[in-house]
Amino acid sequence: NLRGNLIKDAGLQGLSDDDESSTAKSPVEVLDLSGNRLETVEGIGSAPGTLRELRIGSNAFEGRFPDEIFKLAGLKILAASYNAGFVGTLSAEIGNMSNMSISFSDMHGDIPSEIGNLSRLEFLSLDDNRFKGPLPRELENLSELKYLSITNTESYNGAITGPLPSFKTNRNLRELYLNDNRLTGAVPSDLLADSLLTDAPIAVSVANNRITGKLPAELARFEKLHFEAGGNRINGMPNVLCTKKKWQHGNVHDFGCDAILCPRGTFASSGRRETENEKCEVCPNGVDDAPHFGSVKCLGAPWVDSDGGGATVSSSASASSSDASSQSSSSGMSGGAKFATVFFSVAAFVALIASFAWRDINRRRDARVAFEEAELDRHERNGVVMYAADAGHNADLGEAGMLDVPLGGPNGPSSPGVDRCIL
């Protein structure tokens, strides 16, 4: 574990296990280089075949994502998120991993259809990149997939487009996050139709896309679904969904249909009611301001147009503004006062939207960090992580300028075949 040091080079020459002339080496199974200042992982292909987990998140990489990582035959877990300098497309030679996270980077292009060949993949996170095009149908081949998150491509000048796949055959999928993209069409009636988890908690987010139509009544087959669909163009919701008392972590029991989607003519920051205090608020112009279920704002209020970037108001709001201007002399309000009122209203609205966006980013990052830490703890308990980075901070160097330190976690050696490491 070399996490959090100032390492700048990740060359692994000499660790290869295919050198017949070398003496037997202890197997390296987990390599954690996250939180350093690595600018390249050139030479990672020299890693031994025993390497099954590689963590290189939060470094200073520049340039194309190293495809040689995917050629590591034994690699099962790749954690490479929070590397803004990674660019390029996702390789079609994608290995055979069970857990892959390349989020908050600068990857672009289509997601390759070859991703469907990862028959053992359970966890896939590709958030906050610049991927574009439709989601590959081959994702539905991943029968072991439990967690899939490809969110927020639109904010980074990408665009995941096309219809929402049904993920019908992903029988073990329990968390599906596809929010903040440009998905179109209706929510398919056979969404997760073959799921083995209809009585278990399942989370699905398709919020802030361009989804239309009516929510399918077939979703009622799930007993504990958490479903986020605000910020779309949905025009109907069957009443049967409002009877699912355990949906939305029990909020449907407390708030009824509003806990799924706010009705037309109202809005909430997430498009639904989440707490006692945060209700679905009525828009000034009713359905003219909020023509869809799950509105996240009133169109009559100033807002930032995601397509054009400028302040936009509805036609009815513009007319009202014109009428108000013609009566300004009788109201006694000066032009400067009106400008100040509008300015501060816009500023307050933008600040509110920014706070919710920042809260969502922090929530997703905290969840991912917690997951990765839990995975690391699990491997520590299994005795495959060897600590050498911090063991000798207070020790003296020997005669040869080498440092002899014990290997292991806080409870002693973690690898029964290795007692010490010479640094």
Strand content: 15-25%
**Class computed from helices, strands and strand pairing:** alpha/beta
Q: How does the overall form come out from the CA principal axes?
A: globular
| Strand order in space, largest sheet | 1-2-4-6-8-10-12-14-16
Radius of gyration, Cα only, in angstroms? Answer: 26 Å
What is the CA–CA distance across the termini?
Answer: 13 Å
Quick rundown:
16% of the residues lie in helices and 17% in strands. The protein is α/β, with parallel strands linked by helices.
Give a topology summary.
Layout: E1 30-32, E2 53-55, E3 63-64, E4 77-79, E5 86-88, E6 99-101, E7 106-109, E8 123-125, E9 130-134, E10 147-149, E11 159-161, E12 175-177, E13 184-185, E14 201-205, E15 210-214, E16 224-228, E17 233-236, H1 251-255, E18 266-267, E19 281-282, E20 303-304, E21 311-312, H2 315-326, H3 328-331, H4 335-381, E22 404-406, E23 420-422
Parallel strand pairs: 1-2, 2-4, 3-5, 4-6, 5-7, 6-8, 7-9, 8-10, 9-11, 10-12, 12-14, 13-15, 14-16, 15-17
Antiparallel strand pairs: 18-19, 20-21, 22-23
